[in-house]
UniProtKB/TrEMBL annotation:
Belongs to the cytochrome P450 family. It comes from Phascolomyces articulosus. InterPro entries: Cyt_P450, Cyt_P450_CS, Cyt_P450_E_grp-I, Cyt_P450_sf. One of its GO terms (biological process) is lipid metabolic process. Its cofactor is heme. Gene3D superfamilies: Cytochrome P450. This is Cytochrome P450.
Amino acid sequence: MSSSSGNNSYLSAATVIGGAALGILSYLAFKYPDRAVFEDVQKGIPQVKGYPLIGTFFQQLKEVSRFYDAQHEHLEKLNTMTMINSSILISLTVTTIDPRNITHILKNNYTNYNKDTELKRCSKQFFGDGIFVHDGATWRFHRKTASRVFGTKDLQKCFDRVFAKNLGVITHDVLDQYATNGSVLDLQQLILKFTMDSFVQIGFGKDLKMLTQEGVVPLAESFDTSIDHIVDLYMNPFTPIMDKLHPLLHPHTKSISQHYKELDQFANEVISERRKDIQNGKKFNDLLSQFMDTKNENGEPFTDKDLRHVILGTISAGRETTSASIVWTMYSIMTNPDVEAKFLEEIDSYLPSDNYQQDLDPVKLYEAAKKMNYAHAVFYESMRLHPPIPVNQRVAVEDDIWPDGTEIRKGNVISWSNYAQGRSSKIWGSDCLEFKPERWILEDGTLYKEEKGQWPVFNIGPRACLGERMAIVEGLTTLITLIRRYKFSLYNPDQKVDYNVRVALSIKNGLKVLVSKRI
Ligand code: HEM
C-alpha cells in the first residue's frame, strides 16, 4: 500500500515538473520562434529565419563549406544590404554590405569597432600582440612603427629586388620546364611558393628556395596549418577536442603544437643568426632589420618573441592575400579569352617586343605596370568577385546607429562581406556576376574610383592595408610577366573551381593548368 502511494506521488511530481518544463519550453519557443533562446529581436534588421530556440545553428553548420555564397544568398533572399543571424553557440552577427555602413565602421566611427576578443584568443599563438589583433594605444603604436618601416625607400627597393629575382626563377627554373615537358602544374601551389619565398626573403633576408622544390614544403605546411587552425578554433567549437584526439586519430601526421614548434624554431634560428651577423658588422635593409632598429612602446628594443610575431604576421598578411589575388586573376584570364587578348594588346603597346621570351628589365616592367589601366582593371575586377579577404568583422564597443538606420548594440559582432558585396546587383548593377574589367575604366580612359566603402578589399580608413601599393605592383608585374611569356589553360576545362573557407580565399584542391610558351 505505502509503496504504491509513494509511486503515485513520484509520478504526480514528475508530471508536474514535466508539465512545467514543457510549459516553459513552449513559452520560450513562442517568444523565440526563429532565433536563439534569450536573444532579443533587434528592430529593423532583417533576420535569417531559424528554428525556435536554436536559431540558425544547423543551417550554419550545413553552410560552413560555402559560407560566403550562403551569406550572399541570404542577403539576396531577404532583399537587404544588412541582416542578422542568430544561433545558439555562435555569436549573434549583424552582417552588412552597405557602403555607407562600411565607411562608418571602418572610418567615421572606427574607434567604436574593435577586433573580436574571441578571434584574438584563437590567433594569440600566431599573431601574439602584433598589429593585426590589437586596438587602441597598442595598435596605434604598432601602426606607427609599421607605417614608418613600410614607408622606407630601402624596404621598397628590397621588395622590388626580391620580386624581380623570383620572377626570374619562376620563369626560367620552373615554368620553362613545364612548358617544355607538357606536364600538369598546380598554379596555386607554385604562386604560394613564389609569395612565400619572396615574403620570407623580404622579412628575414633568407632564401628558402621553395620555388624550385617539388611538392609540399614542410615549413609552408606548418604555416598553412597554423593559419587554418585559427579559423577552425574560431568557427568550430569542437576543435580543442579534435586537437587532443589528434595523436589517436592521425598518429602519423604532425599535431598543431608540432607545427607551431616548427615555426618557432625557424623564426628563432633566423633571429639568432641575424643577431650574430649584426655583431659581426653586417648591414641589412629588410623588414627584420627595420624592426630590430625600432623600440617598443616602453622605449625598449623588440624582444625575440615580439619580432617573431611581427615577422610571421607580416609574411602571412602578404603571402596568402597576394597569392590569392594573382591565382584568381589568372583563373579569370584563362576563362575569358577576350580579356586575355586585350591584356596582351596592352602589354604589347607598353612593352613592345617581338620576342615574348625576352626577359623584362624590372625597372621598365614596374614603370609600365603602373600605367597599364586595362591590367589594373582586370586585377580589380578579379578581386571584386574573388576578394582575397572575403569577410571581416569587429565587435561594437558601445551602442551605435548606422547610416542605414540599423541599431547596433554594445557587444554585437558586426561583419562586412567583401565577397557578397562584390556580387550584389544593388551595388554593381545587373551584370554584377559577369567578369567585365571595362566597368573599371571610365569613358575618358581613366580608372574608376569606387565610392568609399564600395570596394573595401584592402580596408579603408585608419586600418587600411599597409601593403596595398606593394601588393598591386607585385601582383601586376607577376601577371604581366606570366601572361606575356606563356599561354595558360585549365587542365580540365570543365573543372568546377571552388574555394576554401579560410582567412584568405584560396582555391579548393588547387588550380591545375597546362603551360606553353607564346612563341
Ligand atoms: C592582395 C593583397 C592584399 C590584400 C587584399 C590585403 C588586405 C588587407 C585587409 C582587408 C586588411 C585589414 C584587416 C583588418 O583590419 O581586419 C589588411 C591589413 C594589413 N595588411 Fe594587407 N592585404 C594585402 C597584402 C598585404 C601585403 C603585401 C602586406 C605587407 C607585406 C600587407 C600588410 C598589412 C598590414 C600590416 C595590415 C594591418 C593594418 C592595421 O591593422 O593597421 N598586406 N590587409
